[in-house]
């Protein structure tokens, strides 16, 4: 499905968040996702706009993300959000 933001806009925002906030990432454990060996990393990011805590599963074969779970706290009226994502890379086609 088309994204409302371009990849360049996402990258620009990520770089800005890195400059303004504090981020950590560390290896947690090895685990299998759909029979594929992965390394699981914990991540934490604190910025002016939100705090994020999560896990990401990285394929030991391809180096690609296979799964991600993140809890985000935007504070105040914006509240909290939980995101769970599964990434599949087979049968990928460009948009028509």
Whole-number count of domains: 1
What overall geometry do the principal axes of the alpha carbons give?
Answer: globular
Query: In angstroms, what separates the terminal alpha carbons?
Result: 11 Å
Report the C-alpha radius of gyration, rounded: 15 Å
Number of helices in the DSSP assignment:
1
Strand order of the largest sheet: 1-2-3-4-5
Number of strands: 5
Oligomer: single chain
* Low-pLDDT windows of residues: none
The secondary-structure class comes to mainly beta
What is the residue-mean pLDDT, rounded to a whole number?
89
What portion of the residues fall into strands of 2 or more residues? over 45%
Major pleated sheet: 5 strands, antiparallel
- Determine the fraction of residues in helical runs and give it as a percent range: 10-25%
Helix and strand string, N-terminal first? HEEEEE
Structure description:
Strand 4 (65-75) and strand 5 (79-86) form a beta hairpin. The protein has one helix at 7-20; strands at residues 22-33, 36-46, 51-59, 65-75, 79-86. A 5-stranded antiparallel β-sheet has the order 1-2-3-4-5. It has one domain (7-86). It is mainly beta and 96 residues long.
């Amino acid at each position: 499905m088309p994204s409302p933001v371009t990849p360049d806009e996402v990258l620009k925002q990520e770089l800005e968040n890195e400059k303004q906030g504090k981020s950590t990432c560390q290896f947690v454990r090895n685990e299998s996702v759909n029979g594929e060996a992965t390394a699981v990393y914990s991540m934490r990011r604190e910025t002016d706009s939100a705090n994020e805590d999560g896990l990401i599963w990285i394929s030991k074969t391809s180096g690609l993300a296979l799964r991600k779970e993140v809890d985000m706290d935007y504070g105040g009226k914006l509240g909290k959000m939980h995101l769970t994502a599964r990434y599949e890379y087979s049968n990928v086609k460009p948009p028509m």
